[in-house]
Design goal:
alpha/beta; Nucleotidyltransferase, domain 5; seven-stranded mixed β-sheet; two-stranded parallel sheet; 10 helices
């Protein structure tokens, strides 16, 4: 589709997910498309298709307002749900959730009695389906590995206040990333808090050591001098990891140990899933928040859940597992 020289005030409507991919360019006789609204966003083929449209429309002006409206798909790994998590962290984006409950008291005539009756019936027989279809909650498909994840914004004082900290590293180069996490462990409360995260590709051990040293260099209280804290770091014990750990010890003076991870993947997953809470700050550890929220059990071709946790998209989870492995074995 190619549109040129539209009169001011003209509304462009795309019907079908394939239409945006055919858009080549839009020009206006006067003005520009300051407001763009993507209705049923989840029906588009992905964020790349959305960006393709915006690249054609978002030009010729300085101020733009982009609106996205949709009912979140139930599956956690849907591209639009992952994009929603990313948008919540952006300062230039307002994310608002609404449902029929917002209007049934003030304007029930907007929906009608049959709609409300059907919604309340589903609420009584299948609350998960009701929360997904009528409240727009990303409930998952029932196969989430971690149902104990809590999103909390933490202050600097709260991050400094943990008496027990745990650090973990999952080594990587490319395309698998290198990942570092820092956690606070409260064994009496069975609560793990993930409040620090670093990620990189194509970084040498010397470079990653500098990143970690920077993360562990901080002041104990406002106004005091920052210094490198001697926190123990548990690492993936692959052959490459052992070589990297030697560089960390020799060049950066970091205290590192190999995590005893042999044949412990399933047990460590179950241990984490059995905690009372896994608290994650989505701003300080966005990758960990996404991975823990979206991790699901595997399914066969018929959609039946399997007693198996698929590998992949779990680099922060692995780093957390290594950080806590000694506690897993002890517990």
């Amino acid at each position: 589709m190619e549109l040129t020289y539209l009169p001011t005030g003209q509304r462009i409507v795309f019907r079908g997910a394939d239409d945006p991919l055919k858009l080549k360019g839009v020009k206006f006789a006067r003005g520009y498309a300051a407001v763009v609204w993507f209705e049923e966003l989840d029906q588009f083929d992905g964020i790349d298709a959305v960006r393709s449209i915006l690249n054609s429309l978002r030009c010729g002006g300085d101020d733009f307002w982009i609106f996205y409206s949709y009912n979140p798909p139930r599956t956690l790994w849907s591209w639009v749900n992952r994009e929603g998590l990313e948008r919540e962290r952006r300062a230039d984006t307002l994310v608002r959730r609404s449902s029929y409950l917002d209007v049934i008291e003030s304007h029930p005539e907007w929906l009608g009695a049959p709609f409300i009756e059907e919604a309340e019936y589903l609420r009584s027989v299948d609350e998960r389906a009701w929360r997904s279809e009528y409240l727009g909650e990303v409930t998952g498909t029932g196969g989430s590995v971690f149902n104990n994840v809590v999103s909390v914004r933490l202050s600097d004082a709260a991050c400094r206040g943990f008496s027990r900290t745990r650090c973990g590293v999952d080594w990587g180069w490319f395309p698998d990333p290198w990942r570092f996490v820092r956690c606070g462990w409260e064994p009496g409360e069975r609560r793990l808090t993930i409040f620090g995260e670093l990620s990189a590709n194509r970084k040498t051990p010397t470079e990653t050591a500098a990143l970690v040293a920077g993360a562990l260099t901080y002041a104990d209280a406002p106004g005091e001098d920052a210094y490198l804290h001697d926190e123990l770091i548990w690492c993936d014990d692959t052959p490459d990891g052992k070589q990297s750990m030697a560089v960390w010890r020799r060049e950066a003076g970091l205290r590192v140990r190999p995590a005893r991870k042999s044949n412990m993947r399933r047990l460590s997953y179950e241990w984490l899933a059995g905690l009372r809470e896994i608290v994650i700050d989505p701003e300080r550890a966005p990758l960990a928040y996404e991975e823990f929220r979206l991790k699901e059990y595997d399914r066969d071709r018929d959609g039946t859940w399997l007693d198996d946790i698929p590998d992949g998209n779990d680099h922060s989870i692995d780093a957390v597992r290594y950080a806590m492995m000694d506690d897993v074995l002890r517990g």
